[in-house]
Amino acid sequence: MKEKVIGFIKKDTVLCVAMTLAMVSAFFVKPTLNYVNYIDFRVLGILLSLMTVMAGLQRNGLFDMIGSSLLKRTKNTMQLSLVLVFLCFFFSMFITNDVSLITFVPFAMLTLRKCNQDKLLIPVIIVQTLAANLGSMLTPIGNPQNLYLYNLAEMKMSTFIGIIGPYTLTSGILLLLSVVCRKKEKIEFTLEENNGDHEIEKERLHLRRKTHQKNAVYLILFLMSLLVVVRVLPYYVAFIVVFVTVFIMDRQVLKTVDYSLILTFIAFFIFTGNIGEIETIRNVLQEFVSGREVGVGIAASQVISNVPAALLLSGFTKDYAKLLVGVNIGGLGTLIASMASLISYKIYAHHYNEQKGKYFRWFTIANVGYLAVLLVVYGLIRWM
Asked: What pTM was computed for the model?
């Protein structure tokens, strides 16, 4: 029993912290029906819908198929690295940084091994992680903190992209330079071909048709979710349609959704709501955060990661634009600044445990370097 508890805490540390904070705050603000008003059901509904759709698309191999198709056109290590990195960069804008890394880091490892390019594993995976975290900044659906702040501030899409766009553009240039500055070598890479067996090929075609049909439905559900994000469709309509459709068509997908993220959001909603009811603490925090949203957002993200930082700090400022910048570029720096970064680290460490120290060192150096450049960009924008 003790081992199970310890295992759960290690697996969902942020959730455990959030639940603890919520429970402690309940001693100061008596639980009432008012707690329900703390919770942003629209954000939770959109998150659940998007996570379910992305889990379905990932399970049905859509992203792997797209990646494999692009790899057929690569002829050297530079082109290969560009494909692997920018798959994470562009896909993270729509499928979130977490899903992007869960999909494309194992894909990169398999590909690089087939090419006998194991020496590229650490640099490529590190830059992939940077790409996923940086690409996901550009859209409200790229990561949970964006969706939350976009909804809280009731921003227009054009306003959101205008705030984050300069940092994403700079990031894309940095990623490109990180890849093209490495020495390129010719590669020999052969994708898996069928073995000519007619019956096996017939079965593959049948399964492929079923997969394409499911992916078509998931893409329609994704478009519905986007309509909710841009406030065309009510969130509860999309959520019901997504849940019912997936339950009937592909119910196993519902078991793969990260429900702990939803519980984490609820716990932080309760905690920040309760803190907001305690006037003395609320005033102190508002005075501390106000005017320092970018710096405090970056600093808080280094310790508790950027999603909890956004949830906690949003209750003590109205300058959501600066907080948006702070928690997004604050996803760079330490390994836990963005929880998505832990995905890459765990995947690599699982296969190359003896090399995880080297990975961690280079990861930190690269992240601090990128963070420094984006801070300069912030300074220039503020000066202008």
From this structure: 0.86
The CA–CA distances, whole Å, from 247 to 59, 99, 123, 250 equal 15, 21, 40, 6
313 near 297, Cβ under 8 Å? yes
* Separation CA 127–CA 129 (nearest Å): 5
Kind and range of the H or E run holding 183: none
Q: Six-digit token pair at 216?
A: 């078509």
Alpha helices in the chain (DSSP H): 2-11, 13-26, 35-38, 41-59, 62-71, 77-95, 97-114, 121-135, 144-153, 157-180, 198-229, 235-250, 259-277, 279-289, 293-304, 306-313, 320-329, 339-351, 356-383
DSSP secondary structure, 113-179, as one string: HHTT-GGGHHHHHHHHHHHHHHHGGGSTTSSHHHHHHHHHHT--HHHHHHHHHHHHHHHHHHHHHHH
Encode pLDDT of 191-246 as tens digits: 555 455 555 445 555 566 778 888 899 999 999 998 998 888 999 999 999 999 99
